[in-house]
Amino acid sequence: MTVMEQRGAYRPAPPPAWQLRTDPAPLLPEAEPYRVLGTDAARKADPELLLRLHGELVRGRRYNTQATALTKQGRLAVYPSSTGQEACEIAAALALREQDWLFPSYRDTLAAVARGLDPVAALTLLRGDWHTGYDPREHRIAPLCTPLATQLPHAVGLAHAARLKGDDVVALAMVGDGGTSEGDFHEALNFAAVWQAPVVFLVQNNGFAISVPLAKQTAAPSLAHKAVGYGMPGRLVDGNDAVAVHEVLSEAVERAREGGGPTLIEAVTYRMEAHTNADDATRYRQDADVEAWQDHDPIVLLERELTERDLLDEDRRRAVREDAEEMAADLRARMNQDPALDPMDLFTHVYAEQTSQLREQAALLRAELEAENEADGAGR
Amino acid sequence: MTTVAVKPATMGQALGRALRDAMADDPSVHVLGEDVGTLGGVFRVTDGLAKEFGDDRCTDTPLAEAGILGTAVGMAMYGLRPVVEMQFDAFAYPAFEQLISHVARMRNRTRGGMPLPITIRVPYGGGIGGVEHHSDSSEAYYMATPGLHVVTPATVEDAYGLLRASIASDDPVVFLEPKRLYWSKADWNPDAPSTVEPIGKAVVRRAGRSATLLTYGPSVPVCLEAAEAARAEGWDLEVVDLRSLVPFDDETVTASVRRTGRAVVVHESGGFGGPGGEIAARVTERCFHHLEAPVLRVAGFDIPYPPPMLERHHLPGVDRILDAVARLQWEAES
Ligand SMILES: Cc1ncc(C[n+]2csc(CCOP(=O)(O)OP(=O)(O)O)c2C)c(N)n1
Questions:
Q1: Same-domain status, A109 and A139
Q2: Which end of chain B is less enclosed by CB atoms within 10 A, N or C?
Q3: What is the CA radius of gyration of chain B?
Q4: Is A275 among the catalytic positions?
Q5: For B210-261, what is each residue's pLDDT tens digit?
Q6: Catalytic entry in A186, A284, A317, A332
Q7: What's the CA-to-centroid distance between A179 and ligand 1, angstroms?
């Protein structure tokens, strides 16, 4: 064979082992955030669901204002408010079934409370009398997580373990837009997709990571588009449309439990308050930016729909308001009591069995406490 | 009469056997890591596990250490008992955030509600001619993190016994495997049930009267060799194998040093901020009136781990140990 003949025989072809591993088209998110409220579909929405969501959202907002007030009274060390994001928080909780697990971040106390956690227990971390105020296994709510995105691989591992055991359990993991830049976000999504773990990732894109806007966080077309790179579907939803978020989340949960694997959902919302009570949002955004969202408030959107459908009369409004006030009054009263503290607890749960070093240190503290008590007694 | 099947086994084989037995005894034990399945691990410790127990029990994960440990946390939350393999000491670093912020604290954070029984196996230390990032002694980082147990075997029998105990522990254990001892051999009966060792107990490997060498992991055989060589100088050295850095066995260590009156701590890890500083301080606090000389340390230099052609100058060897022993103020005695 001459060299020329060899050349003629050459046909450009992909490398031998190459092929596209999944069709990316079905994984792509919608072109703009999915909405229900204000569309024809809303007319068909179950009135009971609408009313349930409304009641929970109003309660949720009241919880936020009450908790923020508690920071001013020194009853909470800090509170990251989710005002403006209640639709995401509540829908997250309501889309889950009893046996499912929630993996919240520090901003997601509302989701935990809506899932049935005692409102006071949910605030233990932020009051500072302990790190977690509840047994995670009791309500299937992981501890509120502060190191960004680190709870996401936990959700994947738990869902994977449940699947290995043959249990029908879905894990819902919540993270902020800033958290999507963390390595753990990437690793969690990758593991979830490879293992086809029954997990739902909910990103609340509230516009900011403390002061840093999304544009400095990512160059992706949207956060939901990131899903395609992992081989899982991405969904883009209006995070202030409680009905839409509930629907998209419920579909993702259903998909996961049927063995369809993980879903990444980006809910577009807005953080109406500063990052926490300790933050000064005027340093990085204008009041006008916030005002633009007032009209797109999750409760406003829902009430418009309810009014349109004659589902929200004055009695109903009053009942919802009273229910929220009752919750807030109870929260206030219980949070105004000093929590019981036992310094010796510091040594109790470091290891299953206390090491001799910790026993020595515990003895030291006990002696200090006794001396303190005696001094107090003598002073009286 | 039945004869006991004692035959030579390597430390690597004993570790593999411990994993196998733990998996056979307890269906909640799962092995996860890079190349642990089909290949059996780069050191072959997990050889045969995927075949015997299936991919769901011995899983080749995506290549991401934080992801491996992070998902292991979730698995443990659901009641499994994950055993994670980090491929090399320096490649465990990506998992540090999960280790420190979650693995070490979950029991404490949840008031005991959600302990994490995770074993993290980390091949560590030098002496195998590894190129950069394959020979670190990272134990000081782990020791400095409350909530973790830090365990390291030095013998074939301990490799089995301590790994079984670590997997059975309801607390997270960082299980440091001295790479250079993977191929060390001993006569060992894998069917002897007595070999599960409690965590937190040091042992006297060689009894002696002149001075105590306090050491662990890869430095134990070196110290034993030094103790033999020391006989020529008229020193009868005791060698204590710590086996567990956390919890630390103050009792065994203190008893030994009070008996001998002199101590040298020996490890590969750097001396500054290394385990030896903590150990020397503990010994001094407890044995001050029994000490004939300051507690000395023979450690790796305070340098990034050297390239393989130079590592022999870095690792504590017999001569450096004997030089330290010679500095234990013997003059006063004669
Ligand atoms: C690993 C890590 N780095 C930094 C922080 C400090 N921090 C707390 S919240 C936050 C911003 C997070 O923004 P985002 O993920 O968008 O969530 P949001 O607070 O808006 O709900 C930062 C930087 C942290 N908690 N964890």
A1: yes
A2: N
A3: 20
A4: yes
A5: 999 999 999 999 999 999 999 999 999 999 999 999 999 999 999 999 999 9
A6: A284
A7: 6
For residue A351, what pLDDT band results from cuts at 50, 70 and 90?
A: very high
Q: Is A356 on the interface with B (CB under 8 A)?
A: yes
Predicted TM-score (pTM) of the model is: 0.96
Which of B67, B113, B147 comes nearest A136 by C-beta?
A: B113
Does the residue A148 lie in any domain? yes
Q: Which residue type does A93 have?
A: A
Alpha helices in B231-305 (DSSP H): 250-260, 275-287
Q: According to CATH, where is 3.40.50.920 located in chain B?
A: 203-332
**Would you call B85 helix, strand, or coil by DSSP?**
strand
In angstroms, rounded to a whole number, what is the distance separating the alpha carbons of residues B102 and A152? 12
CA atoms within 13 A on the CB side of B181: 25
Contact B70 A352 (CB under 8 A): no
Position A71 in a domain = yes
Measured between CB atoms, which of A150, A348, A349 is closest to B102? Answer: A150
Cα nearest neighbour of B32 on chain A: A157
Positions of CATH 3.40.50.970 in chain B: 7-188
Q: A102: domain range?
A: 23-278+286-335
The CATH number of the structural domain formed by B203-332 is 3.40.50.920
Q: Which residue has the tokens 């989340």?
A: A249
Pairing of strands B237-241, B203-206: antiparallel
- Same domain flag for A328 and A358: no
Ligand 1 neighbours (beta carbon < 6 A): A 107, 146-148, 176-179, 206, 208-210, 271, 275
Same domain, A128 and A251: yes
Q: Note whether residue A17 is domain-resident.
A: no
Interchain pair A156, B64: CB under 8 A: no
Number of residues in chain B: 334
Chain A, 121 to 140: residues with Cβ < 8 Å from chain B are 130-132, 134-137
Are residue A155 and residue A263 in the same domain, yes or no? yes
φ, ψ at A92 (rounded to 5°): -60, -45
CA A204 to ligand 1: nearest atom: 21
For residues A85 and A195, membership in a common domain is answered with yes
Query: Do A76 and A138 fall into the same domain?
Result: yes
pLDDT digits (tens, 9 = 90+) for A287-308: 999 999 999 999 999 999 999 9
Phi and psi angles of residue B58, each rounded to the nearest 5 degrees, phi first? -130, 100
Overall number of domains in chain A: 2
Instruction: Name the packing angle between helices B219-230 and B318-326 (round to 10°).
Output: 60
- Among the listed residues B30, B102, B134, B267, the single catalytic one is B134
pLDDT in tens, A97-127: 999 999 999 999 999 999 999 999 999 999 9
A374 and A231 within one domain: no
Does any domain span residue A140?
yes
Q: Does A159 contact B at CB distance below 8 Å?
A: yes
Q: How far is B245 from chain A (nearest CA, A)?
A: 12
On whether both A319 and A364 belong to a single domain, the answer is no
Alpha-carbon distance values, A375 to A366, A372, B173 (Å)? 14, 5, 42
The conformational region for residue B9 under phi > 0 = left, psi -120 to 50 = alpha, else beta, is beta
CB contact under 8 A, A154 and B62: no
Quick check: A358 and A350 in contact, CB under 8 A?
yes
Question: What was the pLDDT predicted at B1?
Answer: 42
**CATH architecture of the domain with residue range B7-188:** 3-Layer(aba) Sandwich (3.40)
